[in-house]
Fold each of these.
Amino acid sequence: MSKQISHNACNTRRCSVCGRVFPLTPEYFYRSKHKPKGFVYECKECRKQIQKQRERENPAYKEWRKRYSREYWKKYYKTEKGKIVHYLAQKRYNNSDKGRVALLKSRRKWRKNNPEKYAAHIIVTNALASGKFVRQPCEICGNKNSQAHHEDYSKPLVVRWLCDKHHREVHRHI
Ligand SMILES: [Zn+2]
Ligand SMILES: [Zn+2]
Ligand SMILES: [Zn+2]
């Protein structure tokens, strides 16, 4: 079998651990910028085994890897390209069944942990629906797609209107 596809060697790779030949695609190999053709030498299965082995031998390695990758991605997502990649991945995830369930769960959790915020949001939503309240454009940039921001949740109808971006900025400064 491996002989048959060897003429097509540029599109396949023999795993350096198990010796099986797989198409050289992300489905079978992890990507690595530093390896030839952008993929590592071991197939995914073997790579996972190696990873597990390492974690068994050195429990600190697992921690280190987790932390390293979290920090790596955090930094990556701040770059222009990373922002787009993150946005698209998030969108795909939110549209998946798993993502929808997670979203509902996180909303429920948020409501439970932030009852006063949730109550304020309901009051604003109802006031908007009844016409008692009119949505204003973002007070900073004028974007019509604005959200109600509460400085004090005990005064649910005292809000500042902010677009998504400026709303986030305001929260970062609190
Ligand atoms: Zn393998
Ligand atoms: Zn704005
Ligand atoms: Zn807010």
Amino acid sequence: MTHMAIDFGDVEAFIARAIRSRSTADLPLLGHGEISVVLAWPADEPVAAVKRVPPFRDREAAQKYVDVCAEFFDTLRNAEVAAWPTMVHIHVRDDDRAVVYHQQPIADLAQLGSNVMRAAPLADSHPLLDAIIEAAARVCNPTLGFDCQLANWLWDGNTATQLDFTSPFALTVDRDDLRYDAHAFLQEYPLVIRPYLKKEFTSLIRRFTKAEGALTDMVANMMKEGLDEWVEPAINAINLQLGSNVTRVKVQRMYDHDRKLMPSVLKLKKAQRWWLTHTGRRYEQLLPVRTTYHE
Ligand SMILES: Nc1ncnc2c1ncn2[C@@H]1O[C@H](COP(=O)(O)OP(=O)(O)OP(=O)(O)O)[C@@H](O)[C@H]1O
Ligand SMILES: [Mg+2]
């Protein structure tokens, strides 16, 4: 039941139709982050959450990405950080490009970290924050970033369980590239700006390789989520547990940077979609109506 067999050819056909109509209106959406759109499947009687990673050039490139995902699951297991059960599938299309799907049980969104904190009475601390801080301290390392934002966690009152695995922040030893072909993600952008974006994104990912950076990002996201009142307790908990010096000013600076970057990135994607579809080519990404930074 947890992982019913899904025909990803059907999912892909369904999504292809939505991409062509440029609308997510007919899709049973469970949510979206900056990278992927999360669907309930099958649409009429959902039993699973599916997340689509844009197509890789071929099966080999997809396999490399899947291997990195598998390694990340191992890392979490060794660090004793809980992971939401996830199956990663490669679907090779008729045009030989390979789409990767992550399949998970549908989570109870009342348990989503951001919703939990929104519902919790304000206090000096919260066990979910402590659990995330501990997880970040165990997982982050110079070649592995960990996206710790609250919307990537489920909290059942005891355990913080990570649920976002679509873009593992696994860097090469020299830390200037991802360990899988980032083309799948970069193809959404106009060709001329890809080298610039690749640099920008790689430097963004390096932020997550230190617990302090990953957690400052978590707090910056709390500002976005309307969780301002928890900013102070979160900063205190981080500094107490890590011996770090996170401040409201640093958090604000990061938030301002991201707030400028992400909407312009979505505009770039939309421009690229216009360009490709007006030159008779296929656009591959299902875009959210807006970024999670509401303008
Ligand atoms: N298994 C699930 N069941 C129900 N809802 C889910 C599930 N997984 C994700 N979601 C919803 O979709 C949102 C985005 O999911 P996720 O973080 O995996 O996507 P993402 O695009 O990879 O995000 P990011 O921008 O952080 O990389 C979650 O915050 C949550 O609201
Ligand atoms: Mg996410």
